[in-house]
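Fold these two proteins, one after the other.
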Amino acid sequence: MSETLIFPARPPVTLPIEGSDQRFPVRRIYCVGRNYADHAREMGHDPDREPPFFFQKNPDNLVADGGNFPYPPLSNDVHHEIELVVALHKGGKNIPATEAHSHIYGYAVGLDMTRRDMQGQAKKQGRPWETAKAFEHSAPCSALVPASRIGHPQDGAIWLKINGKIVQQGDINQLIWSVPETIAILSTLYELQAGDLIFTGTPAGVGAVARGDILEGGVDAIGHLTTKVV
């Protein structure tokens, strides 16, 4: 018996693939918190290798193709967080770190935009972070670059400029939990699947944005993104 929807289903959320007319369908977005030691310190935490923690954004929070970032309501302190993004083309449970690379389709550059004032209030009250992290347009993301083309970078500068001035700078070799380790641990908590994205954490230097700012960020050997705060 065929199903009849009571209203039209939304089309899938997709990301462009650099150099291709194909697009990558997105299932879920996982984010790793405090995965660079210097960022952990600036947020007032011990950077030792405590088990990583995760939160999620929604697929339709993505801003692809260089779109603008509309400043969200109910916040006066919205921060930038530049990140390496990993895209999976197959999933599973309890994936060994030694096999994690075979699950990766490619990489991108993303921004985990954060309502820092809302996040701070949620922390004080012991409440979830969704309103601070998973709001509309909170995940600008570049086109994906297939691993079949660039391999699996182990190092490379990660950086963000606002209006031409460097505000965040680090190297992806400074990740507390490497990409394979992150995939392995995440797969013990969730059954990962094709279409999942992982935002892997941000280096130090996070700070506020204002309407009119131009954000330009990148990861060496992977790509860059640009978005305007409107």
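Now the second one:
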Amino acid sequence: MHKLVVLYPKPADPDHFRDYYVANHLPLVAQMPGLLAYRYSFDVAAAPGQTSYFAIFEADFADAAAMTASRESPQGQQVAADVANYATGGAVVIHYPVQDGVV
């Protein structure tokens, strides 16, 4: 599995961010090809002294190739272009292959 994570610093208008994100952005995300699942939260905490974020998003793809194809698709490009409509604080995008742990 390959995970895509987006960290959002605090926007200029938090209410607009929440409303737009849920009503407009996430429906676009749901149309991305190859997307297996996604999760998000507006309740992000950080350890004392560390940078905090306003929101987090994570998406699961079968592998890096599936994620890349999804992001380069017309739907993925539409999602990327839409970020400017709500994320006035910017966005930090990271991705990585997921390794299973042993309990």
